[in-house]
Each structure stands twice: as C-alpha cells, then as structure tokens.
Design brief:
265 residues, alpha/beta, Uracil-DNA Glycosylase, subunit E, six-stranded mixed sheet, 10% strand, binds uracil
Length: 265
C-alpha cells in the first residue's frame, strides 16, 4: 500500500488521506519510511560469487590493436583496468570534446543494472552518470521500488563520453563503446538489466526494433533477463508515459522476486 502510494506520488498524483483525530485517540502520528522489498536489503549484500575475473591488465593493452583484438582485450579487463581503459579511450570521435569519460557508478555486485544512453553536460563535468534532471527522476524511480543508486544498483551508459549537444550517439560510437558495456555487464553479473531508452536497448540487444516493439516483452541478454523502458529524459518531456514506465519497473521487480525465490532457476 505504502509502496503503491510512493509510485503514485512519483507519477505526479496528489494523495489525500482521511484524517483521524489523533489527539482524541491519544496517538502520535507515525511516519514510516518506504518499505524495503523482499530481496532488496538496506545493507549492501554480501558479495555474491561472480564469474571469474582475470587478473589486472594495464589500460595500455588497448593501444594499437585492431577491433577484434580490442574487444577481446576489453573482455579480459578487471574493474581497475576497465575504468582506466574507458578514461583513456580514443576509439571514436566523442573523445575529442569530452571533459572526462563517465564509466559508471554503483554497487559492483548489484542485482540491478540500469543502462542509459550517454553522459550529458553535467555528467561530463562530474564524471558520474545521471546526475542532471533525468538523473533526479531516475533516483525517484529507484526510490519508489525501494532501490538507491549505490545500493544493489549499478548504472552505466551505452556510450561513456558526451555526444555534443546531447544528440543521440551514432551507431559507430555505440559500437566502439559496446565492448566496455559488455564487460561491465559481465563483471556486475546482475540478475536483471533495465534498458532506459532506444540507444541502450539497441546497444545491449544489438538490434534496432522500436522501443514500443521491445517494451513489455520477455527479453534477455544471454541468461540475464532484460526489461526495456523509457529513458527518464523522455519521461520528463512526456509525463503521461510515466504510468507505462511504472508498469515496466513493477514487472522488473517481479522478475527479481522470481529470481530470488528460485522460480527463474
Ligand atoms: N542520460 C543518460 O542516458 N545518461 C546519463 O548519464 C545522463 C543522462
């Protein structure tokens, strides 16, 4: 019930509650925090066993190698080497104007992996994904389902450098960055991937169907279930679509619950 209220509030509805005369009943009004959902503990979860991660490789391993070898080299990087490789990357034209690359943020053992499109001006300045207006909405969406960006959630983007003027990244820019995203997916090994918008969907799923063709369908990346939903920046411009995004998030949460209860095993 409280969870439903949080979702409705986030959708922009004002909630009216019948007021009881608490003084008459001798009660102190109580304010309760949002419930933590099953399987989403407030404390960081104990690190789950992950697919074996190779030993550290230096970022320079990527210089001067061809595309196939580059992808294979990235697929062998550990977190430190991956972050360094992203920060030093010059594989596409986006590097020319970036202040810094924005690798990703959050819990590296998270059950939930959210993927956006690419950094905007604020993300480029701060080096963290989703810190602007769209990020605030994403934080509220996470909070409404009992999540937070640093708690059981990892956030990454399809491209790690800002496309000028916040344009949609070109196919070749997403292709150049894809090995980084694939490595992030492999290292986090989430229980679920939530793809925010078309660029994220196209990059991870490696296909170009429309968002409406992908939303609400049972999709997967390898063995990992995938939910496709609207990008928060789109929702800020199209408020009525928020209701559909909530449907998607509720479906996503159900997938996690089923995974926790062993139903997806
Ligand atoms: N939009 C995105 O897709 N990613 C960000 O990091 C910020 C805005």
């Amino acid at each position: 019930m409280r969870e439903q209220a949080a979702i409705l509030r986030e959708m922009g509805y004002t909630l009216w509650q019948l007021r009881r005369n608490t003084a008459e009943h001798g009660e102190t009004p109580k304010v309760e925090p949002l419930p933590i959902l099953a399987g989403e503990t407030s404390a960081p979860k104990a690190p789950a066993p992950k697919a074996s991660v190779p030993a550290s490789a230096p970022g320079s391993v990527l210089s001067g190698v061809d595309d196939g070898k580059r992808a294979a080299a990235i697929a062998a990087l550990d977190w430190a080497a991956l972050t360094q490789a992203i920060q030093e990357c010059r594989a596409c034209g986006l590097c020319a104007r970036r202040r810094q690359a924005v690798p990703g943020i959050g819990d590296r053992t998270a059950d939930w992996l959210f993927v956006g499109e690419g950094p905007g001006a604020e993300e480029d300045a701060r080096g963290e994904p989703f810190v602007g207006q769209a990020g605030k909405l994403l934080d509220n969406m996470l909070a409404a389902i009992g999540l937070a960006r640093d708690r059981n959630v990892y956030i990454a983007n399809a491209v790690k450098c800002r496309p000028e003027g916040n344009r949609t990244p070109a196919a070749e820019e997403m292709a150049a960055c894809r090995p980084f995203l694939l490595r992030q997916i492999a290292l986090v090994a989430p229980k679920l991937i939530v793809l925010l918008g078309k660029s994220a969907a196209h990059s991870v799923l490696n296909e170009d169907r429309s968002l409406s063709a992908l939303r609400g369908r049972p999709l997967s990346f390898g063995a990992i279930p995938v939910t496709v939903t609207y990008h928060p920046a789109y929702l800020l411009r199209n408020l009525p679509e928020k209701a559909k995004a909530w449907e998607d998030l509720c479906r996503a949460r159900q997938i996690i619950r089923e995974s926790d209860s062993g139903m997806l095993a």
